[in-house]
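TICKET: design request
STATUS: open
ATTACHED STRUCTURE:
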């Protein structure tokens, strides 16, 4: 007997051969012979719509007139050199700038500042670049609205005004006509989900339309050797809207993220064929646009300059950039049997693990305590290198003792209470020394990083780390709790 998938495939092929319509999911492209309310592939509701019957005909045959391949030694390698945009943080994430013929997709939540960022890129590129003009195509706003935003953020400067061209287009044929007629040096499309082709069935933003628009723009970029920046919408779970083939087709995928209640914006590289994929760019958004942070370490630490109970500094690696950030904890009496745990910038599961390790291997119970853990500035802490700093911040808040000033803590905590080494330790310590820190609590075996001009305090167990960090001996031999000086 045939399986359900086999029967569906056979029925779809039979419908195609008879010229019947089929149904396709607008999210993932899954097809079926009859309408269903829920997609069988991505499990999305209400996304299956009817599409026309597939065209029948002969398969693709070899072309008669082609451009023959040439030896690699005869290829001009200088044509692919990157050109700086004039925005240092944007160029850092890309590698060194915009590569001719590259297609870059920028995704992010609504209102995070995607259009503002690319409008500033267009202005800087028009002011400092050479060659043709910069073409900014908007499918969501009128050109007058884009002009007002450019004037507000200072992107409409005399140097760039004559070379920054605006066009409000939603027809793919008109977009391609603009590119062919103007011969620009940079094209920005805001956004790819608003552009549609009359030759393809479906509404703008659908699977078929996004594929056609992306393929046509990529072909235009490669043939004219012009970089194209595309703004893409995201779904409610933060992924790029439309078919996943869109991310495979483009050369670079950038994620622009940030909380609505903070002014910090982070630009991350998720895919980059021309540079690293582990770099981030830091921006501050205001009513006057975006400002890049050349040295972002200071924005993730308290500005009072004094140590407080429940606070510890660590150094995180965001790409190849070390960033010092402060972790704050608050431990307060909670309701018996159901204490609350809340985090900001740190995974809640990570907090639960640290509390279990502190209870089991340091003798500090938190069963009746509410614990809140946060990073200053709302930055997201990735990786386990901040485990030691988070644990020390929790213990510091629990006992009411502050860590000594100019101390940092770097290390991963295992389930056995052991302190493990982390990658990039020497670079982290060098950044800490540059910022004026004098002591570092680190895992054992960190001696090769001594040239960072820091006094290294090596610890191998969480109980040893607590006694090293806090000014009073709180734990007895074997990690047992000695006293709880709440009155201190």
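STATUS: resolved
RESOLUTION: sequence designed for all positions
ATTACHED SEQUENCE:
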């Amino acid at each position: 007997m045939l399986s359900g998938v086999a029967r569906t495939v056979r029925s779809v092929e039979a419908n195609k051969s008879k010229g019947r319509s089929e149904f396709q999911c607008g999210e993932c492209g899954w097809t079926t012979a009859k309408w269903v309310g829920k997609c069988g592939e991505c499990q999305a509701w209400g996304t299956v719509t009817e599409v026309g019957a597939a065209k029948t005909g002969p398969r693709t045959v070899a072309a008669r007139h082609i451009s023959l391949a040439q030896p690699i030694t005869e290829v001009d390698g200088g044509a692919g050199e990157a050109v700086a945009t004039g925005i240092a943080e944007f160029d850092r994430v890309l590698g060194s700038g915009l590569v001719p013929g590259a297609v870059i997709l920028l995704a992010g939540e609504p209102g995070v500042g995607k259009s503002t960022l690319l409008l500033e890129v267009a202005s800087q590129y028009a002011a400092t670049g050479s060659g043709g003009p910069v073409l900014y195509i908007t499918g969501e706003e009128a050109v007058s609205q884009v002009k007002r935003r450019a004037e507000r953020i200072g992107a409409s400067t005399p140097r760039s005004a004559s070379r920054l061209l605006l066009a409000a287009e939603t027809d793919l044929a008109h977009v391609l006509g603009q590119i062919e007629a103007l011969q620009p040096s940079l094209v920005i499309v805001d956004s790819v989900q608003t552009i549609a082709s009359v030759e393809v069935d479906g509404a703008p933003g659908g699977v078929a339309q996004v594929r056609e628009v992306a393929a046509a723009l990529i072909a235009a970029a490669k043939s004219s050797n012009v970089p194209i920046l595309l703004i893409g919408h995201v779904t409610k779970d933060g992924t790029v809207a439309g078919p996943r083939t869109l991310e495979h087709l483009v050369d670079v995928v950038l994620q622009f993220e940030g909380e609505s209640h903070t002014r910090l914006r982070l630009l991350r590289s998720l895919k980059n064929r021309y540079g690293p994929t582990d770099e981030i760019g830091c921006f501050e958004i205001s009513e006057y646009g975006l400002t890049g942070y050349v040295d972002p370490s200071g924005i993730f630490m308290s500005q009072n300059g004094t140590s407080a109970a429940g606070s510890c500094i660590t150094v995180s690696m965001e790409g190849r950039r070390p960033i010092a950030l402060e972790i704050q904890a608050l431990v307060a009496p909670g309701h018996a049997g159901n204490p609350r745990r809340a985090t900001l910038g740190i995974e809640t599961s990570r907090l639960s693990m640290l509390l279990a390790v502190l209870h089991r291997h340091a003798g500090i119970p938190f069963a009746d305590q509410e614990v809140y853990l946060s990073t200053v500035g709302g930055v997201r802490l990735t990786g386990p290198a901040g485990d030691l700093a988070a644990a020390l911040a929790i213990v510091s808040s629990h006992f009411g003792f502050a860590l000594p000033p100019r101390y940092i803590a770097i290390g991963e905590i295992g389930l056995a209470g052991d302190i493990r080494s982390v990658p990039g330790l020497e670079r982290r310590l060098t950044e800490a020394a540059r910022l004026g820190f004098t002591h570092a609590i680190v895992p054992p075996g960190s001696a090769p990083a001594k040239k960072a001009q820091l006094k290294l305090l090596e610890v191998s167990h969480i109980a040893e780390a607590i006694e090293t960090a806090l000014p009073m001996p709180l734990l007895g031999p074997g990690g047992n709790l000695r006293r709880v000086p709440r009155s201190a």
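CLOSING REMARK: Residues 475-488 have pLDDT under 50 and may be disordered. The first helix runs from residue 4 to 18.
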